[in-house]
Automatic annotation (TrEMBL):
PANTHER family: BETA-LACTAMASE-TYPE TRANSPEPTIDASE FOLD DOMAIN CONTAINING PROTEIN, TRANSCRIPTION ELONGATION FACTOR EAF N-TERMINAL DOMAIN-CONTAINING PROTEIN. This is DUF7918 domain-containing protein. Residues 14-219 form the DUF7918 domain. Residues 243-270 are annotated as: Disordered. Pfam families: DUF7918 (PF25534). It comes from the Eukaryota.
């Protein structure tokens, strides 16, 4: 299975146009699903959602590693029958004429105690969340998008090795490249509810860690490239060292150093187009 689904609504994370397999799917409430997916260093990805009937207008909020990265609108079919039923978000705009793609990356791990404050800050790393909000639309205007400057930026992370994120990945924006400003439907309106109408959460880790934690069965070992098996052993050694540290074990004397970790996997899904944006 490579998507999450609640009624007419489905969501998935795609890499190179193929949906990531989802594991350990849990319904955390009537309107919320969570799962695990495998991340792969250097791979760009998109967050996608599809609404079979489009009975209501929805604002889709994409939250990556705890940071709001995008707001898009899917207009309702009764008032806007010619609009698409699917949306895909794979980048953030950095100016009127440039943008940067979402990309899985290595977390840098250090034993430098100057980074101890990153232990708590790293709690949101490793999650991609899509919140769908019911929207009351007051106006729709088609025009060339005018970029709003000063938005958040996802860059390389360094966390202390005592963090539970040791051995994991995070998301950063890829290299900036030129892209002309699109003509889009700029929507004005307001959310109808105090809480999201639907929430889909994708927790991502390297495939080796998903297997080590029993989220993916060992029978799926063929999905991991042979060159990554050494990395899996290194991750297990790091996990053992972390267990010793948390239980009060002595820390070896050494100068601060940075360690990095990798992961992998994929599958097919329909393409969606990105046409609307919240003003």
């Amino acid at each position: 299975m490579n998507m999450l689904r609640i009624g007419d609504y489905s969501a998935w994370v795609s890499v190179e146009g193929k949906g990531r397999e989802v594991y350990g799917v849990e319904r955390t409430s009537d309107n919320s699903l969570t799962c695990w997916i495998a991340s792969e260093v250097g791979k760009k990805f998109a967050v996608n959602w599809y609404n079979t009937r489009r009975e209501i207008a929805l604002q889709g909020t994409v939250i990556i590693d705890g940071m709001v990265c995008d707001n898009h609108i899917m207009l309702d079919a009764p008032h806007y029958p010619d609009k698409p039923n699917g949306v895909g978000v794979s980048y953030t705009r950095t100016s009127d004429y440039t943008r940067r793609d979402f990309m899985f990356s290595k977390i840098n791990i250090t034993d430098d105690d100057a980074y101890l404050d990153t232990i708590d800050l790293a709690m949101n790393i490793g999650t991609i969340t899509l919140e769908l909000w019911r929207l009351h639309v007051t106006s729709v205007k088609t025009q060339v998008l005018e970029h709003k400057y000063g938005g958040p930026v996802l860059e390389g992370q360094i966390v202390h090795e005592r963090s539970k994120k040791a051995g994991a990945h995070h998301v950063k924006f890829g290299k900036e490249y030129a892209s002309a400003p699109p003509t889009m439907d700029l929507v004005q309106g307001y959310n109808m509810d105090q809480l999201p109408y639907l929430t889909f959460t994708f927790k991502y880790r390297p495939m080796e860690i998903l297997m080590a934690n029993g989220i993916v069965p060992r029978s799926a070992m063929h999905l991991v490239p042979l060159q990554n098996l050494q990395t899996a052993r290194e991750i297990r050694q790091l996990e053992e060292r972390l267990r010793q540290l948390r239980s009060g074990g002595n820390k070896p004397n050494s100068s601060p150093r940075i360690k990095v970790e990798p992961g992998r996997h994929h599958r097919d899904l329909p393409q969606v187009i990105d046409l609307t944006h919240l003003d």
